């Protein structure tokens, strides 16, 4: 997320992205970071914990640009991708639909995705579910990845997830209703 986009996007999604970046490093999960038009929007903000990670600049909304596809092609057993970032209705949706088309399982981390508009975010998450992506939360996905509290890395991971993610604003769109995650 660039500084300019951070100023316009709902910030709570950043908490989930930061959680996930730390856990991915602990679990040695490959992380691919793209930057949407960094010359105009600025570089990735340091708060996301992506220092030291290679960043792929892009202008199209899907992150599956040739350089990223080459990077992913070097992962011989790639079956799933985990997506987080901004703008959910543009970059996340375009990437997810492209990855689904390539036969990959797509997991979209709802509390690690943001948009300038909550309505756009909600509609995008709904469409992604309808298209076959798995919409989940950072904590739910992290616990699925670590699989067992006996894992020697669990104590470190537990420190990253012990505090609940701040309210991302999605539940306020469902007064008296189920948010549709059933």
UniProtKB/TrEMBL annotation:
InterPro entries in UniProt: Isochorismatase-like_dom (IPR000868), Isochorismatase-like_sf (IPR036380), Isochorismatase_domain (IPR050993)
Protein's GO biological process: protein destabilization
Pfam families in the cross-refs: Isochorismatase
Family the UniProt entry places it in: Belongs to the isochorismatase family.
UniProt name for this protein: Isochorismatase domain containing 2
PANTHER family: HYDROLASE, ISOCHORISMATASE DOMAIN-CONTAINING PROTEIN 2
GO terms for cellular component: cytoplasm; nucleus
Record gene name: ISOC2
Domain Isochorismatase-like residues, every copy: 24-139
